[in-house]
Specification:
Distance between the termini: 43 Å
Low-confidence stretches: 1-15
Helix content: 10-25%
Oligomer: single chain
Strand content: 15-25%
Structural class: alpha+beta
Order of helices and strands: EEEHE
Radius of gyration: 13 Å
Shape: globular
Length: about 80
């Protein structure tokens, strides 16, 4: 269960990072995908890709989470489609 509460395996370098008791602060997770607990908004896991985050969450106990990608300062902002 790499990347879940209590473990750190590298973060933005290509591995998942667990931040089990860290409050959700978007600026700390720029460029990463994060799983946030629905109840108390604590970060459950962080990974550089959605696929890695989903794999790590699938290996863990069921826990209701919200998955979010936190953009970097250089990511384009899309406003409207028409």
């Amino acid at each position: 269960m790499a990347g879940l509460a209590g473990e750190t395996t590298g973060g933005p370098t290509g591995h998942t990072t667990s931040l089990g008791d860290v409050p959700f602060e978007p600026e700390r997770h720029r460029g990463s995908w994060v799983a946030v607990d629905r109840d108390d908004e604590r970060v459950v896991a962080e990974a550089p890709s959605l696929e890695q985050l989903q794999a790590d969450l699938a290996a863990s106990a069921d826990q209701p989470v919200l998955i979010r990608r936190i953009p970097t300062d250089d990511d384009p902002i899309f406003v409207g489609l028409g």
